[in-house]
Specification:
The chain is of the alpha/beta class. It is built from 9 helices and 13 strands.
């Protein structure tokens, strides 16, 4: 936290984002794994060459760059990032670390096409937390916001109606997942992708689990490079915010899934 404050005091916000994302991606590429890499490192067990993937809330590319490398030249990644500043850093990172298999899309996903919305980036204890940028439900000013960003919303059905396949979806949208995942259900039912979704609070978690359960998906959480079955009512499990969803017919195919 102190290092973040020092960097923000010395550099512009954009330069700060470029520095921290470069360090994260460079160390990961050289297999110098930090504790922050554990979820990204696990992608290699779920994604293979030729896969089609969607990264919703791509931010600076912490997931997009590793996914791009895993899917190779025959795969395709759609990186969704509505915030212009983050998207500029993402595009720089894609150009430096990745290849032509990434399409960066400048939208927020949701229930309406061409709807103009606002997103807010909070200031937490003097540190601008870019990873917690969220859709603002009200236009009222907040003293906790470091920045507000204008963006355009599009429905997933509009953007992805012509996909030939879909193997993996990652979604990190700071509580807005309930407005997005329902619009992917037809694609999920058709292609049976693996999903990795950050979900909070618990009420959202239970609703998403119920929603995907209707499509015969099983929820898990990551621990020690193994996926553990999520059990409703287990307080320890319910504290997990990063959940993985696998089609029930595919859970037996992977040695990293505990029964």
């Amino acid at each position: 936290m102190l290092l973040r404050k020092l960097l923000l005091a010395v550099f512009s916000f954009e330069k700060y984002l470029r520095i921290i994302s470069f360090i994260f991606l460079k160390t990961f590429n050289h297999k110098i794994y930090l504790k922050e890499h554990y979820q990204v490192k696990f992608l290699g067990k779920m994604i293979k060459g030729g896969d089609y993937c969607i990264d919703i809330g791509a931010n600076l590319g912490y997931f997009s760059i590793p996914i791009s490398k895993l899917i190779g030249k025959n795969g395709k990644l759609y990186s969704i990032e509505p915030v212009e500043l983050f998207r500029e850093v993402l595009l720089r990172n894609v150009a430096y670390f990745s290849g032509e298999n990434v399409e960066v899309m400048p939208y927020a996903l949701g229930e309406e096409d061409e709807k103009e919305i606002l997103l807010g980036t909070p200031n937490v204890n003097g540190v601008i937390r870019h990873g917690r940028t969220e859709v603002l439900e009200t236009t009222e000013e907040s003293t906790d916001l470091a920045y507000q960003h204008k963006a355009v919303m599009m429905k997933p059905e509009t953007l992805f109606s012509d996909l030939p396949r879909l193997n993996f979806i990652k979604c990190d949208v700071e509580g807005y997942e309930l407005h997005i995942i329902p619009h992917f259900l037809k694609l999920i039912e058709k292609f049976r992708p693996i999903l990795e979704i950050e979900i909070d609070p618990l009420s959202h978690k239970l609703e998403i689990i119920e929603m995907l359960s209707s499509l015969n998906y099983t929820p898990f959480f990551l621990r020690n490079e193994q996926l553990i079955p999520f059990k409703k009512g287990n307080s320890e499990h319910e504290e997990e915010i990063e959940l993985y969803f696998f089609p029930k017919e595919k859970t037996g195919e992977h040695s990293f899934i505990r029964s």
